Fold these 3 entries.
Entry 1:
Amino acid sequence: MDTLISLSEVTKRYDGGGHPAVDDVSLEVAAGEAIAIMGPSGSGKSTLLNLIAGLDRPTSGTVTVAGERVDTLSETGVARFRRRHIGMIFQFFNLLDDLTVEDNVLMPAQLGGTPRAQARGRAAELLSALRIDKHRNAYPGRLSGGERQRVAIARALVNRPSLLLADEPTGALDSATGEEIGELLLDLNRSGQTLVLVTHNPDLAAHFASRMVEIVDGRIASDATGWTAGRAAAGRHAEVQP
Amino acid sequence: MRRGPVARAVRGGVTRRRVQTVVIGLVLLVSTAASVLALALVVDSRSPFDHAFAAQRGADVAATVDAARATHAELAATKRLSQVATAAGPFPEVAVTGRPFGGPVKIPLTLAGRSSPGGGIDDLTLQSGHWATKPGQMVLDSSPGPGEIYEVPIGTKITLTGLPGKPALTVVGLASSVTGTAGGWVTPGEIARLRPHGAPDLAQMLYRFRSAATSADLRAAEKAVSAALPAGTLTATQSYLSVRAQEKSGIAPFVPFLVAFGVIGLVMSVLIVANVVSGAVVSGYRRIGILKSIGFTPGQVIAAYAGQVSVPAVVGCLGGVVLGNVLAIPLLAQTANAFGVGALGVPVWVDVTVAAVMCALVGLAALGPSLRAGRLSAVQAIALGRAPRTGRGYTAHRLAGRVWLPRPLTIGLAAPFARPARTSLTLAAVLLGSIAVTFAVGLSTSLSRVVTGLSHTTTEQVQVQVPTSGPQGLVRKHGGSVVPVRHGAFHPPSAATVERTMTAALHAMPGTRRSVAEMDSEVTMQGMSQRVELTAFDGNASWAGYEMISGHW
């Protein structure tokens, strides 16, 4: 399979000095993979995800995603790169509270230059598939945590990104809602969506990822492949096309 | 740059963050209004007379001429002299004495006949009421005369003494002349009716000269005018320089305070706007991070934030200019009254400058944090939106923690050190506010002392009105109740008798160490359109608080 993500000897050190948050990490992820990055709090897993997304820059090493050297792009270049290739889900949703659900979903499409009618059609399709279309004109503040995360997923998928990054996507949700969101991500991966999931929850990782990378003190401690994602998947499935 | 998402982000920020929008709008509204007021005050305080003189096209010289000695053509010919830039007149003029309400108070007045308040020279400012349009009406000078404490409202009938039948004029308007060319104005035809029998046929000519900067210039121009007229025609002149000198001496004590208040108001407005706007951007760091994470470029982030702050700022700014002008009308009218000049207004350049500076200030205040936010990575922006940069204010927190105070209090005390720039702005605004309060209290105290010093409180003033023409007199103590004193058959006492009796009575009062008689009167002088206050003493009154500047009693 084609390599979608390639990290080579990546180190990230913050201003304060001390131990690097990410220390000499090399990693390759193939297109269509569902990989879980695990580790305790402060181990550097979120930093690694931010480096892949171009939200942060490595102190040294190279980050290549979809054939582009993310670490060398300008701020404007990396913003355009994100529009084209990256969909991102955060633990605390990071929705724009002053825009409606539909406007939140439409925003990346408009940034990407998708014609308005086409963007609205895609947003409607996603909101319907994620069963939040009745909230399209609501503001995020009025939604439950699970509904907000669905909005965030719709926003992440609206540009049909080649890579979906999820940073503790169930961390702020109750277990039942977390399970639902996990199922959604699993369905997406089954449909061919490459998924990088950051979590400190081994059960979640085991359940939804086919590969688990464990990070400790910024270094890769283990990289286990061969998991069968969705072993215990059950319940309601949403048909979401990436 | 795609404008759709930016516009959507701006609209969302403006409409959903209502508190921030309203706060920015209100701060700009109030600050702009205050700045317009303050700058107008500063500008008008610098040379109020000159501003009013230019605005009202004041006369360099108001000349009184004997119209019986020169023809209209000869007077008109003076307008074509090389020294004369422009001239107006002749306006018939007469000196009269009026009694408001037909009462005992006498007002000497120089009346000029003018058909309208406007003109190329001495454009009169009609403060209230309307212009005199028919006989029996007059417009009174609204500027208080020296020492004048009474007001004559519109509708008052002023009975003119010394004229057959004692005609009365009804005050229909109040107006002011920047150089005080007359104490009142009537229709031109009215003057002949009001001229006492045997009084000279006087008229007023108003001139603006090509060179009028110095007294020598004016003297030379007056000489040319006089030479162009038959001998003895020009009876008196009043130059704008003497009026200006008088005005300047009167306003000198107030100017430093007004300028100081104006400058403090301006600086405080600038600091508050910078503080609020930069605070709004800093508080939006997390949102900036989110925008970047979904694909906003740094340029789009800056545009979104500049727009979000600019929309309420520009609305507030424009509203502030309007509000400032509305508030300036009564304030500058009071200032003009205090300065004794006709009218003061907000110059257009003040409106334009304040609006432009405030908008630029908002842009600058927003630009710094926006640029910083644009340069930050999305992760840093989100992190900074939650808490200040790591290590900021750490020393202050550590030191405050050692102080024997409740920990929540010391955390609060150390918090401002985490954002030193904003704290400095806030401190500067508070400092200037304190200075303004100190100034205000100091001004009030200082002026109270001046008033106390001038009020001759070391003496007890007893006002006595000597009955001269009626069966009833009034004796009243200053500030006390009026006590009517009835007489039997009225025999006006001689002045010497009155003085002797009063002096004896005063000295018979326990506690009286010495006394001095004082009499106030107002007179008109030919060539002086304004009344002249005359105070007579029957001896040396320096012990009563009257400072002798030069000469002797």
Entry 2:
Amino acid sequence: MTGLAVTRVGHSCHLLEIGGRTLLTDPWFTVTPTYDPGEPLAMSVAGLPALDAIVITHEHYDHCDLDALLALRDVPVIGPGTVAVRARERGWTDVRELEAWDSTTIGNVTVTATPGRHGVHEVTYVIQGGGRTVFFGGDSLLVPAFKELPGRFGAFDLALLPTNGLCVRPAGGMQVVMNATEAAELTAILRPRVAIPHHYAFTSGRLGDLMITKGDREPLAFASEVARLVPATEVRVVLPGQRVIPVSGS
Amino acid sequence: MTTTPSALRWPAAEQIDLGRAPLTVLDRDRTQPFLLLHGGAGPHSVTGFGDLLAARLNTRVLMPTHPGFAGTDRPAGLAGIPALAALYADLLDRLDVWDVTVAGNSIGGWVAAELALLGSPRVSGAVLINAVGLEVPDHPITDISGLSPAQVQALAWKDPGRVPPNPAQPGPDFAALAAYTGMTMSDPALGDRLADLDLPVKVIWGAADGIAGPDYGRAYAAAIPGATFTLIEDAGHLPQLEAPEELLAAVRAER
């Protein structure tokens, strides 16, 4: 059993320390007029510690900011085919292309892609190492296949989940991200010791929020719903930069 | 009650010359900013919450460093909490900001209370977060003089396991704190003066505070006519660090 810690850099970008390795999830370091994390990032690319892998759920700008990471092209990128194409185009050579239920290893850490659903093709991940298990939900919708996760992977120490229920206004208000209630339902399936919400501070700008996206920027609804459904799980709502160390269950 | 000519809030057009053409610009700014004041833990103890407040309320948050904290200079003549409050009243004048909510934690809350009492027309309300400064004989403030930073953290945090492992500027800053408070942490005359305060005030309290407990907080709210009291269960003396979202919700709540 080795240490597990997570530090939210911003949005869905986390530094995950597991099994003696350091992984970065869904990187996003660059602000554009209609893509603003809505919170200060805990660190710049230059301030990142040495990484063992970059784990990406899908190619959207706020999850796959590979252009900001060109200095790190020696670090393996793990992602679905749609991400792998973009990584190779930018000069990455160690690209681990995973679709749902495929696995790869980084040292003694196993990264398994799990199903997901979003406006574009997306996978989620289960990351295991040092006897600890983490679910990383990117910005997926809630999908039925998540019910298989406890049977396949056992007990979860940590779940990192989107909660803003993002809807795309020009697409008839189509929902593309799970909302707080759905994230709490997923938490009740996974029953992790600690759950951390992410992907809620994002803004498309004053007009973009009115004309392009609609999302819930309040993470506390998730916390209160989890407290009702699965009180054994501790919800930690963290500002960027707060390092959380989930206590081991055994 | 302070009155202000309306024209000051709706100024006439200005001339701005960019060199290519003289521009006539009518500028309307109804931002409702915050002045967010740190306590003895230092300026970094409010930064994250200030960022959250600015982002979530789409507003402006001014976070000054009290002179003498975090390595800044404090002129020898600047001492006492009222002097700090007067300095910040001047800052609001200099920045020409209006409808300011003054918020502060610990001694920052004390400064906020003193600033509210100055009657600046620019200050429209105050949020006191685990504030000190009031003398409450039945529920005295814990004397932290002589304690180590680790002992102070054990009192201040509900879960000391959440203390950032290696903050760039560890608090509390005892020397700066002593210059403003004399380490007494209260002013016997503050209670009587607060009884005449005619501003909306929210008193918000981290429940697990070993420095100034919830009953002290209730007494603070009771000392201010019309003030509300909100308890945050999952925090100690620094709710902006232990439960920032809950604190934000309390700041935004209608009561």
Entry 3:
Amino acid sequence: MGRDAVWWRVAWRNLWRNRGRTLITASGLAFGYLAAVLIVGLTDGMSAELAENGTRLLVGHVQVHADGYLPERSMYRTLGDAAGVDVQALLRRVDAHPGVVAAAPRVYGGGLVSSGEQTKAALLLGVDPQRELRVSNLVSNVVDGRLPDEGAYEVLLGTELARQLQVEVGDELVLVAPAADGSMGNDLYTLVGIVRTGSPGLDANYALLSFSRLQQLMALTPERIHEVVLTMEDPWAAPTLASALSSELEPAFGSVSVEPWTELRPELFEYLTLADAVNFVIVIVIFGMAVFGVANTMLIGTFERRQEFAVVRALGTTPSGVGRTVVYEGIILGTLALIAGALITTPLFVWWHNSPPDLTGLTSGFSLGGSQWRPILRVEYSLDAPIISAVALLLTAIFAAVYPAWKATRVPPADALAGR
Amino acid sequence: MFGRLEDFEREARAMIHRPAPGVLRTTLARFVLVVLMGFPAVAPAVAQDATSRERAREIIDRVDRLLRGESSRGRVTMEIATEHWSRSVEMEVWSLGTEYSLVRVLAPPREAGTATLKADQEVWNYLPRVDRSIKVPPSLMMGSWMGSHFTNDDLVKESRIVDDYDFDITFEGARDGVPVWEFLLTPKPEAPVVWGRIEEQVRQRDLMPTWVRYYDEDGDLVRTLTFSDYREMGGRLVPARSLVVPADKPGEETRLIYHELVFGVDLDAGFFSLRNLRARR
């Protein structure tokens, strides 16, 4: 290392012999770094929003059903089959599973919601309102009134359904649903709240009540629920957690089927996986272009120094020593560019993250795989983007130096000194 | 699965609209025609030189004319068997022509008083528990009626069968020693019907139907309606029992058994009102 240190010093000094050129090359790399991190940050932001919206509204990260409940959603296929399960025990078990943030029970039914002259077909969703708040955004945006109390004859309607029924908070509603015993379940309820989920399909179709009341309406015993939905700290760990949870629940709660959101929303998952792959392509393209720019500059630098190389060679330096200085120049250049890049990227990134440009006025966003994307150019913090870009930048600088370094080792001392 | 939101909407719709296992879409006209009234016990004198289509049409027209303005009252037991439950419902049924009918549940006690009114192409349900009458919305017309293998739509399709279908005689002769006609009913091109075709067998001797088979647009059998226990009721020969078997749900069926049936009851259109739907008797 002692002898090596000399070459590092030589490389360092060489870099600053043409200060302007070095600074321009370093800034090129630094801006490449900025571009790579921001673009990856933007696609990450878009992916994060799609994943969040795609799971947060209704699906959650993992769902637990009786085996065979999906895709038919027969009302008879409750967890634990006809006997049902101890709902509270099941929820405690799921809650306690490592990585689970919150879990909530659900009962699904189809039926009629009627008020006065108006009657509409609706999806009846039985939930535990307080638990539901923690796993989804289904009930988080109550625009009028409040959530139903657990066990009360109270209903929450989507905005559009409430509008079609011409009802207001405080009005009386009749719910009618085919019951599990073949009869036509019906009862009176009070409309206590109106909710806007942002999804037109949901807002126009669903009526929500406490799951115990829906069980009663559908002649299901309190042990019979259709679904437990849960959210996790790390949504990307959903497939692993799902299989672990499945084997944990199986002995105690009958044949269950535990589906992660990656299976429940395959198209969304595929898109996100693709977006991730595209990130790599972006980084490769950006630095791939940079490689040639940097290599070109360094090549010129080595040609300019042909005679110097010849001199040091003539003084007894090995060809590899000469080559090393050039590579070291590349490494130092890359490191400088990386520091500069980090210095300009960090504040811009933080600022962008905190006040993302809102293009709502220009475009209305889009829906992909059923998940809404608002036209807000959010950049997402991630470890990947800066690290991958940093590695790419350093590799670029080193690769760019390799060819000039090889050329430098090939300088024939006598010819070069003779000016040939 | 409630995957994408579009899926959610589609599933929500499907869950709501999914009819009882094995959809039955007999028209009330058929229902009344063959179940409630029976065919007239007089074989029509059909011109032998007419074409098959004209003769078929003539037979059906005679039946149709006899039904117009006819009023009836009856007591029926409906026995429903599905994969998950079986139940038996006692009902009282009033009808006037093919336009009006009123069905009120007598038993089981928990559901007694529940009633269905069909008038003016609308179906209303009265729910005694909440004391409300609810109009069945158009989106739910394909839903199960009273948990049976009939749909609400079956109640309203009226005597449109005569207008919506072309009739052909596909077989004329003896089946198991009994002379019968077999008809093929093909929907007219513009007719708003749900069936791809209907086949029906009628006994020549007394014009009693023996079976009706309903096929979807792909030509697959969807359900079969079978009649039996022909007897005199209200001075008329009727099949007292009818059985509906959905083709896609083995073991499931809905059976209708008439215990009492009288014709020429003193009823007018005013009887089939929301006020009467609600009245407890």
